[in-house]
Design a protein that fits this description.
There is one protein chain. With about 500 residues, the chain is an alpha+beta fold. Among the domains are: about 90 residues, no CATH class; about 120 residues, no CATH class; about 140 residues, no CATH class. Helix content is about 45%, strand content about 5%. Helix 7 crosses helix 8.
Length: about 500
């Protein structure tokens, strides 16, 4: 016989063990939610960091593998860059981070100069053997470069590859004392300025403002920073107001790029920066053509190089001392070729000028027998042309005794100034009253009182003007201007008809 528990007692026991659930009320839900929100702001961030490590120029913490340290003991700049970018932009870094360089450095002994840095990992061979081959961490090579300032002021600062034996941006290593700062360059003391300010209810106050002394190596730090900024396609910090300062900064940057075999990357950026000056740039090139010719050649700037070349050829050999031995020989050869071409053209035009003549009403050339006054006008023009296109003769009188040097030998005399006929052709191209004007014609006719009168003077001036117009047409090939400079503001005393063709640039060979 099966007995069953009493249903009433079962219900009573069940009611004591499991309380009856009621549907949650809105008030209880809102109070619980408010409690959660109230305590949410007190969550702990233990183990995290509020600032993420920098991974942008100039320090790429996560991806950089080439550390560069510029330090002179007073100032320090650190870069953590990418080998891929540096090797693509600079032949120096391409060679320094190559496997051949590392092998040669390792063979030299003790790994000196290799700059090889391995990540921290198991160094025990037994421990490495326990790790499966597929899960072993691949070691990433890293390099470190430091600035070597040289032993004297005449040495050029240069980056050298160092062994990773001190605390760096990569982490680890034993920190070592910083290198001694290089000798400070001679620099004048910083100037002090004082100013007075008057305020109501106050007497005059004297406040001296002392400008902080700048580091003598700031220019070097600036050039290296601009170099790396251009590598990463950032705009360089170059003066965009004063073109003279911009030239100095661009020149030093190009010289640095030449040291690190990076002219192909730096040159176009320098070219772009200088061309933004537009008209001021062309005027500056006209003042210093040899300097801008060298800069244009280093920057591979076709616009700057061609503009400076036209000025140099027109003034040649005036700038030979500033270029000989300071620029590549192909550039000197190009200058000499262009000068020869211009001399040939001038010789042809001189022949045409001396053959110019006037004709009579019957179409015959004037002569002393046919028309004496017209023949005199032709003779005066030819005489003026011969005097101004022929170098002056050497003096007959003895020159003063040259000063003697300490060794007793007489110092050589300075060479005579170069004779440039460009100014004469410019005058011929202007015509008008620029030469053989009214006063000169009047003075010439007065030498023969028999032929001097008002009618003859007017006729003589008209015939001289005809000769001028013919000469103006003859020299037109020399009056061409291949400069970007606007010559309407003021002419130049030399010819600017040199044309630089695309195949003339010496770096396109």
């Amino acid at each position: 016989m099966v007995s069953y528990p009493d249903s009433a007692s079962a219900e009573r026991s069940h009611s004591h063990s499991l309380p009856i659930r009621r549907p949650p009320s809105v008030a209880s839900h809102s109070s619980r939610a408010s409690t959660v929100r109230r305590h949410r702001q007190h969550r702990s961030n233990f183990g995290g960091t509020s600032l993420a490590p920098q991974n942008e120029f100039p320090v790429f913490t996560h991806t950089g593998d080439v550390e560069i340290v510029l330090s002179n003991g007073r100032k320090e700049q650190r870069y953590l860059l990418h080998k891929l970018i540096l090797t693509q932009c600079s032949g120096f870094f391409e060679a320094g981070t190559s496997d051949e360089w590392a092998t040669a450095g390792a063979g030299a002994g003790a790994g000196a100069g290799t700059g090889h840095v391995s990540n921290a990992g198991p160094s025990n061979g037994t421990a490495l053997a326990r790790i499966p081959s597929g899960s072993r961490p691949e070691q990433k090579r890293k390099w470190r470069y430091e600035m070597d300032w040289g032993s004297s002021e005449h040495d050029l600062p240069m980056l050298v590859q160092k062994v990773h034996n001190q605390s760096t941006l990569f982490g680890g290593g034993d920190p070592t004392p910083a290198a001694q700062p290089p000798p400070a360059r001679n620099k004048p003391a910083a100037s002090q300025s004082a100013f007075f300010r008057t305020m109501a209810n106050f007497s005059t106050l004297h406040v001296s403002a002392t400008t902080p002394e700048s580091d003598p190596d700031d220019d070097i730090f600036r050039d290296y920073d601009n170099l790396f900024r251009i590598f990463y396609n950032y705009p360089p910090s170059l003066d965009d107001v004063n073109i003279a300062n911009a030239y100095v900064e661009c020149k030093s940057l190009l010289q640095l790029a030449d040291m690190y075999d990076a002219l192909g990357v730096i040159g176009p950026r320098v070219d772009h920066h200088l061309l933004r000056f537009q008209g001021r740039l062309w005027k500056q090139i006209a003042k210093y053509p040899p300097s801008y010719l060298k800069l244009g050649y280093m920057a591979r700037s076709k616009a700057i190089f061609a503009e400076a070349m036209v000025h140099v050829v027109g003034q040649w050999p005036q700038g030979i001392n500033q270029l000989r031995g300071q620029i590549a020989e192909p550039v000197i050869e190009l200058i000499e070729d262009k000068v020869d071409e211009m001399d040939e053209l001038k010789a042809k035009i001189e022949v045409k000028l001396f053959r110019l003549s006037l004709t009579t009403s019957r179409g015959e050339r004037v002569s002393p027998s046919s028309n004496w006054l017209d023949w005199i006008a032709v003779s005066l023009f030819r005489q003026w042309l011969a005097e101004n296109t022929t170098p002056p003769p050497a003096p007959i009188l003895k020159s003063p005794r040259p000063p003697t040097s300490r060794s007793g030998e007489s110092a050589p005399l300075p060479p005579p100034p170069a004779f440039n006929t460009g100014r004469i052709f410019r005058v011929l191209g202007q015509a008008g009253s620029s030469y053989l004007n009214h006063d000169e014609c009047k003075r010439f006719l007065r030498l023969n009182p028999e032929h001097y009168n008002r009618d003859n003077l007017k006729r003589f001036e008209r015939r001289i003007d005809e000769m001028k117009n013919k000469a103006k047409d003859a020299v037109k090939p020399l009056m061409r201007n291949f400069l970007e400079l606007d010559l309407r503001e003021g002419g130049l005393p030399y010819l600017t008809c040199t044309r630089i063709d695309p195949h003339d640039f010496p770096w396109d060979d």
